[in-house]
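Q: How do we represent a protein-ligand complex in a form that can be generated token by token?
A: Start from the inputs.
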Amino acid sequence: MNNRLYQGHIARKRFGQNFLTDQCVIDSIIAAIHPQRGQIMIEIGPGLGALTKLISKFIDRIIVIELDLNLATRLANNSLLNKKLTIYKQDVMTVNFADIARKEGKLLRIFGNLPYNISTPLIFHLLIYTQVVCDMHFMLQKEVANRLVAQPDSKSYGRLSVMTQYYCNVLLIFDVPPTAFHPTPKVDSTLVRLVPHKVIPHPVYDIRLLQLITMKAFNQRRKTIRNSLDNLFTPVQLIKLGIDDSLRAENLSIIQYCKLANWLSHHLEK
Ligand code: SAM
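Then emit the structure tokens for the protein with S-adenosylmethionine bound:
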């Protein structure tokens, strides 16, 4: 038997297709999301509808975004589901969530068992839209989930941790073993909840500068920040900001990164 075949569909690796098969896990995910009528629920990558079918029992309408046209067509032809679905047959990386929120006139609740091959760039993409998002629940590779919540001085702490925690409160909900999916992935998974801060705790004047600084620092994470950030800050400026220039990217807190970004925007204005 083709071990990529599931419910008459051959799982496509390039679309990160690992379908949820464990009903207990599916029930627990929907319980964690706790959908309510009237909310704008958006599922990324509904696939064969494992989560979609269950969530549709609680609500009247779901927006789904699916890149695989075969799967999108299957969902559109599913007579039990299709009346409730609005299907975006497109790459989620091209979706403008602000437009959807404007059209719906409500904050969005986004969820999905994400294609692991694009989960990191996808989270960066979604962070742009946190102002129009109520919350997000995602099944992620455990290692990526750990990076979302990582604190300074750890190997998992990186640009993804800083940017996600800048915008959101992140909670690990539960771990899921490979056996809950078909085909079975080689990695463990974790369900996470991201809730955008109502008020950003350490706001920066220009988010692009925070992105630039974290990119430069973490792209050369073995170097001291004196070296990795040398074309943005002199050692004297770092010391004046109370930041030890012999530290590495992973040793700086989010507050310190925000301080650097704000100093830079102030300095560039002059
Ligand atoms: N939700 C289903 C489940 O849990 O069984 C499927 C999850 S599977 C891990 C990921 C889903 O995302 C697949 O249906 C895949 O086709 C879809 N997908 C992959 N890349 C995508 C993209 N760039 N935009 C939208 N959907 C995508």
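The first helix runs from residue 23 to 33. The mean pLDDT is 96.
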